[in-house]
Amino acid sequence: MISSVRGPVLSVGLDHAVIEVGGVGFAVQAAPSCLATLRRGEEAQLHTALIVREDSLTLYGFADTDARDLFWMLLTVSGIGPRLGLAMLAVLEPDKLRSALSEGNVAMLTQVPGIGKKGAERLIIELRDKVGAWTSGDSPVAPSASVVRGSVVEALVGLGFAQRAAEQAVDGVLADNSAADTAAVLRKSLTVLGRKR
């Protein structure tokens, strides 16, 4: 997984920036508040989340790990995809978003385009306990094993491995250490699959 990128900013668009890393330009989707801190030609570092789909690999960038970890947490909720998760962080700063979730503030959550009353209530039900234990400055709650499993299997399938083989490899790695993070599980799963080829 690509957890951060650092290098000169080649360009800044309305919804993304291109950052050169080792001669390669990475397009990174980001919220306007994050993009506003970047200047073309200056060096920048963004903490990133890599979302793997069958037809794309998309990097989402954040100014700090706090915002990135909250983004991952939002994606655990059914119906919340990367674009909507990023939109939530664009409208509400991490501290405000956590407060809205822990306090059950539906009105604040529905300020986000694409989040209706039912969606806001689902977010509160699923995340209230998680964000309640995670105040600013604390270590974030690690993604659950099921979230890690889904992300890694999707990444492996995107890399060309068969779905069943990917699932078996990830399940084997998680059986040894269910608390491992996504990047570690992906590395170990690739090692397992490499031995079988």
UniProtKB/TrEMBL annotation:
List the keywords (alphabetical): ATP-binding, Cytoplasm, DNA damage, DNA recombination, DNA repair, DNA-binding, Helicase, Hydrolase, Nucleotide-binding
Q: What is the lineage of its organism?
A: Bacteria, Bacillati, Actinomycetota, Actinomycetes, Pseudonocardiales
Q: Which residues form the DNA helicase Holliday junction RuvA type domain?
A: 1-61
Q: Which gene encodes it?
A: ruvA
List GO BP terms, alphabetically. DNA recombination; DNA repair
**Domain III: where is this region?**
151-197
* Primary site of residence: cytoplasm
Segments forming domain Holliday junction DNA helicase RuvA C-terminal: 148-190
Q: Which Pfam families match?
A: HHH_5, RuvA_C, RuvA_N
Function text: The RuvA-RuvB-RuvC complex processes Holliday junction (HJ) DNA during genetic recombination and DNA repair, while the RuvA-RuvB complex plays an important role in the rescue of blocked DNA replication forks via replication fork reversal (RFR). RuvA specifically binds to HJ cruciform DNA, conferring on it an open structure. The RuvB hexamer acts as an ATP-dependent pump, pulling dsDNA into and through the RuvAB complex. HJ branch migration allows RuvC to scan DNA until it finds its consensus sequence, where it cleaves and resolves the cruciform DNA.
User: Is Iron there in the keyword field?
Assistant: no
Task: Tell me which species this is from.
Answer: Kibdelosporangium phytohabitans
Q: What is known of its domains?
A: Has three domains with a flexible linker between the domains II and III and assumes an 'L' shape. Domain III is highly mobile and contacts RuvB.
Q: What is this protein called?
A: Holliday junction branch migration complex subunit RuvA
The family classification in the record reads: Belongs to the RuvA family.
